Amino acid sequence: MKKLFFLIAMLIIGLTSNVLDAQSGWTLQTNPLGSGESAMIGKVQFVSPTEGWISGALGDLLHTTDAGDNWLVVTPFPNDTLWSFSDPARTMSWVDPMHGWQINAIGQEFGVSSGVVIHRTIDGGNTWIKDVLSTEEDDVGVQIQFVDINNGWLLYVNLSTWVATFLKTTDGGNNWSLFNGAGIFHFVDANNGWAYFGTGPYWENPPFTVLRTNNGGINWTVQFTDNTPGAYNAIYFSDLDHGWIVGNAGKVLQTTDGGTNWHFVTNSGVNPQERCTTVFFLDANTGWISTKDGDGNGILQHTTDGGANWTSQATPLTNPQGSNAIFSVYFIDAQNGWLTADKGKICHFTGSSGIEGNNVTLPDFVLLQNYPNPFNPSTTIKMELAEAGNVELAVYNSKGQKVKTLVDSPALPGTYEYLWNGKDENGSSVASGQYVVKLQQNGKETATKIMLLK
């Protein structure tokens, strides 16, 4: 592979006709499990623009390699009888196309458990490894998250006593050890994470506390306390500074300084009469929060300026369909996203990011996920351009500072690949951690996150 870049010629007519076949906006996709309670699904996550996974409520998963046009059921251990929570959707985690994990409860009936089990793969789901973590009655898996192929955290809870057990791994799940957990968590790297918890079962009652760790969960510092009604349901950080927490009663919390200061966002447009169940941000500016409109239709509130302004995105989750609660949202870039909803619903977003779903939009460019990711010492970054114009492709650190400009020059339509060797403008090697690759052309931009591990 060339160490600089190469251009693969693209036929403009062929590109245009392929794009115009698809409409923009949210559309339903087919769940091979069917619909209703038996087809319940949870978290959705994509590892490339075309390959994605969805966690199932009965221990299985859905897998696609064509952006969700077709989903296949994957059952890692067919003889196991399992279940897991689909709402909230926290029981699955992928860090690249090869490495994924899912946590489940052992039992034949939802809400009745005799232990906790993890299924993990290191070859993209071709084979699976099973690790039984607990055989205690009423222990259920609640959350699992990995930030790279080695570092991960999980939480399981006993439904009778509400005793929480927090475990951490630094070797991909081969070994787990207790750590000082602090509720529902979100980590951006091996050291930096945030968590929240309340009081009572499922931590649904005030006061609600937000905490931070900078040493992987060994120690936690209280950042914020909220004494008002309305449980928190989801937390997400796009980088070390920018984070969001959403919940009931229209609660939307935001920080732009790593949680030193938190404030309530009052103009998000979420319905205070409904639960906000999930939040997802591509970067500091572009994100989505799930809610419902006044008629009970599942919708998303969308911002492209860090929450200063919001627009509503309509979905096919409308009455009298009845399956309107959105469980999980994931976008691979600003033009391509997926959501899961109650009763097994899957929706796919393509095109422009407004509320209108019938306008045909030709994407100006696509920034594909780098590979490998995580990487050391180098990674390949690929972009596809549909029109001519000056292009800037650059790498930024978690503070938004430009680390390396990969290209800043005019370009013709085509497919380009660039190799980044993990060095800055001065030729010095950068530190391990999460970085953002940003592509800009003709006044528009898109971005993707990459991870350097040393």
Account of the protein in words:
The structure is a single chain. This protein is mainly β and 454 residues long. The chain folds into two domains: 22-350, Methylamine Dehydrogenase, Chain H; 365-452, Sandwich (Immunoglobulin-like), CATH 2.60.40.4070. It has one helix at 12-20, and strands at residues 7-8, 25-29, 41-46, 52-56, 61-64, 72-74, 82-83, 92-94, 100-106, 116-121, 129-134, 139-146, 152-158, 164-169, 177-178, 184-187, 193-199, 205-213, 221-226, 232-237, 243-247, 252-255, 263-264, 279-281, 287-292, 298-303, 311-314, 326-333, 336-341, 345-350, 365-367, 379-385, 389-396, 402-411, 414-420, 433-441, 444-452. Strands 7, 8, 9, 10 and 11 form a five-stranded antiparallel sheet that branches. β3 (41-46) and β4 (52-56) form a beta hairpin.
Supply database-style keywords.
single chain; disordered N terminus; 5-stranded antiparallel β-sheet; Immunoglobulin-like; Methylamine Dehydrogenase, Chain H; 46% strand; mainly beta; 4-stranded antiparallel β-sheet; globular; 1 helix; 37 strands; 2 domains; 454 residues
In short:
This protein has one helix and 37 strands.
